[in-house]
Amino acid sequence: TTDTTSSGIELSRQPVLQERTRAVSETQINYAHVSITYTGNGTLSLPNNNNNTATIANFTSNGSALVSFITQSAQGTETIRTGNGETATMTFYEIVKFNPATRDGKGINIAEVQTSPTGTLASLNGMILAGIDDIQLNGESNVTLWEWESGISGLDIFPVHGME
């Protein structure tokens, strides 16, 4: 046999995003899918120039997702808005496991963030996050996401033709 070594998934020490959301509407599409919209609020912990973390508190969010009952998964987008008006857009994918006895669930979540390359949220631009979602029966979720430390640097991975 051949021995293989896995380095595991490396995540940041501190969560980047901690958020509480609440579903505000659901639209049944068919027997297998529902579309939801939600709102939330939470905190972001971002690296500053000294590689320490600076916390930005009190962001609000609005999002929508397509939920599949067949695959117990969701995909969607969310807009994050800080108190000073800066925004970021997060695209996420989630797989959920529900407890049949209590009807609450836990999800594993991956997300990619896009924002302006300048400003307070600039360090989020292009960041990939991974984490968990604790889903309550009342429609509330507690999401915690950490940065995936892939070891791959920057935007020079796939140069745009003519911009090399």
Structure write-up:
With 164 residues, this protein is mainly β. Helices cover 0% and strands 55% of the residues. The protein has no helices and 8 strands. It is globular, with a radius of gyration of 18 Å. The N and C termini lie far apart (44 Å). The model is unreliable at 155-164 (pLDDT under 50).
Summarize it.
0% of the residues lie in helices and 55% in strands. By secondary structure, it is mainly β.
Average of per-residue pLDDT values: 86
Count the strands? 8
Oligomer: single chain
- Compute the separation of the termini in Å: 44 Å
* Helix vs. strand class: mainly beta
Indicate the low-confidence ranges by residue numbers. 155-164
Overall form: globular
What order do the SSEs take from the amino end to the carboxyl end, as H and E? EEEEEEEE
Number of helices: 0
Question: Helix amount, in percent?
Answer: under 10%
The radius of gyration over CA amounts to 18 Å
Q: What fraction of residues sit in β-strands?
A: over 45%
The description of the largest β-sheet is: 8 strands, antiparallel, barrel
Helix-strand blueprint:
Elements: E1 17-28, E2 33-47, E3 53-68, E4 73-81, E5 87-98, E6 105-115, E7 128-135, E8 140-147
Antiparallel strand pairs: 1-2, 1-8, 2-3, 3-4, 4-5, 5-6, 6-7, 7-8
